[in-house]
Amino acid sequence: MKVIDKLAWLEIKDNRILVARSKGKEAFYIPGGKRELGESDAQALIREIDEELSVKLHEDSLAYYGTFSAQAHGHADGVLVQMTCYMGQYDGELKAAAEIEEVSWLEFEEMDKTSHVDKIIFKDLRSKNLL
């Protein structure tokens, strides 16, 4: 079984979660990405968020939230995505960059606009009264 190992940054304000949509894609996803060789979770997440959203995460504020897995969106059956999630503070103004076409804030009821693993994360956040 193939597993796509990804990191995600959970940013929540006013019971809405920050999501992004890549150019040419329909689904929104919780921002983040894959580690490069030798990168720690923090290094990879800081790099990915800077590339995608033009903000700098504070490494010392990153707090592990949880790890979730599900069928990978848009991949063959049996390909799983494993998402290791962190929360943390940032500096800068959020704006779409690189392959990101749109940044949005979704409410719990809008989770159908996201990938399979993101729906699991939405439900977990709701169970903890964070969304």
What is the mean predicted local confidence, pLDDT?
95
Count of DSSP strands: 9
Overall shape = globular
- Structural class label: alpha+beta
Give the neighbour order of strands across the main sheet.
4-1-7-6
CATH superfamily: Nucleoside Triphosphate Pyrophosphohydrolase
Give me some keywords for this one:
single chain, 131 residues, alpha+beta, 4-stranded mixed sheet, 2 helices, NUDIX_hydrolase_dom, DNA mismatch repair protein MutT, NUDIX_hydrolase-like_dom_sf
Layout of secondary structure:
Layout: E1 3-9, E2 12-13, E3 16-22, E4 32-33, H1 41-53, E5 56-57, E6 63-71, E7 80-87, E8 90-91, E9 100-106, H2 116-127
Parallel strand pairs: 1-7
Antiparallel strand pairs: 1-4, 2-3, 3-9, 5-8, 6-7
Organism: Roseivirga misakiensis
InterPro entries: NUDIX_hydrolase-like_dom_sf (IPR015797), NUDIX_hydrolase_dom (IPR000086)
Domain Nudix hydrolase: 1-131
Any overview of this molecule?
The protein is α+β, with helices and mostly antiparallel strands and 131 residues long. The chain has one domain: Nucleoside Triphosphate Pyrophosphohydrolase. 19% of the residues lie in helices and 35% in strands. The protein contains 2 helices and 9 strands; from the N terminus they run E-E-E-E-H-E-E-E-E-E-H. It has a 4-stranded mixed sheet. It has a 3-stranded antiparallel sheet with strand order 2-3-9, with no helix packed on it. A hairpin with a 2-residue loop joins strand 2 and strand 3. The longest helix has 13 residues. The protein is globular and about 40 Å long. The mean pLDDT is 95.
